[in-house]
Amino acid sequence: MLRVLLLTLSVVAIVHAELCKPDAQNAFKVRLSIKTALGDNAYAWDANEEYLFKAMVAFAMRRYSSKSTTQISNVLVCNVTDRVSFWFVVTDSSKNLTTVPESEVEAAIRMNRNRINNAFLLSDQTLQFLKITSTLSPPVEPSTPIWLIVFGVVLCLIVAGILFLVVAGIQQRKKKNKDSTERENLEEKSEEIVTVENGIPCETLDLKAGHINGVFAADDERFTSL
Fold it and tell me: May I have one GO cellular component term (predicted)?
């Protein structure tokens, strides 16, 4: 009896070895970058982590199809490397000598990708199923509505334009006041200039207030008294 049991186990092992090997039908390669993802907190890949991986794949298969009865023993892992890469297949729970089609396994993995990633504290970039494309994250909607952002930009441009006009008006007014002051100063200086005619200095005539000639003023007073 024992001999029959050992023979059966050896046959199953040989069959499983044929089912799970690089580039075998319905086989997937997995690559993990634990050190890259976790740095000093990286954990070692051992038999316990491998058991967890098998459990997560079995969970994904059962969750994908309510009819699935996949067990951990149906997930075969082989060709494990020190840099943490390996191949795996999922065998049919009813026959156990054939593998589940690649399309079904891929659909189950994609459906439960986040759960598998979280179990190993990894992401799509550090836990790679090489035949399965990364799941796309839902588009991130901005917290502020687009129309409000556009309105804010337009309002800022309007305020900036008003400020520019106000500052330009103030500067122009200051410039006009400065030019007017300089012009008045020049006029005052020109009135105070003493001109020289025939070698005799003469006062310039004050066009605004006028200037009274003393000689004629005296004559006027004399004739007036007569």
Answer: plasma membrane
Between these two residues, 184 and 77, which has the higher pLDDT value? 77
Contact call for residues 54 and 116 (beta carbons, < 8 A): no
The three-class DSSP label of residue 11 is helix
Q: In what order do the strands lie in the sheet with 85-90?
A: 75-78, 85-90, 28-32, 127-129
Q: What is the pLDDT of residues 181-202, one digit of tens each?
A: 777 777 666 655 555 455 555 5
Q: For residue 114, report the phi and psi dihedrals to the nearest 5 degrees.
A: -65, -40
Bridge partners (DSSP) of residue 75 are: 90
Phi-psi group of 26: left, alpha or beta (phi > 0 → left; psi -120 to 50 → alpha; rest → beta): left
Instruction: Tell me the torsion sign for CA atoms 117, 123, 128, 131.
Output: positive
Rounded Cα–Cα distance for residues 45 and 78 (Å):
14
Amino acid at 117: N
Which 8-state DSSP code applies to residue 20?
A: S
CA dist 134 → 29, 35, 36, 129 (Å): 14, 20, 18, 8
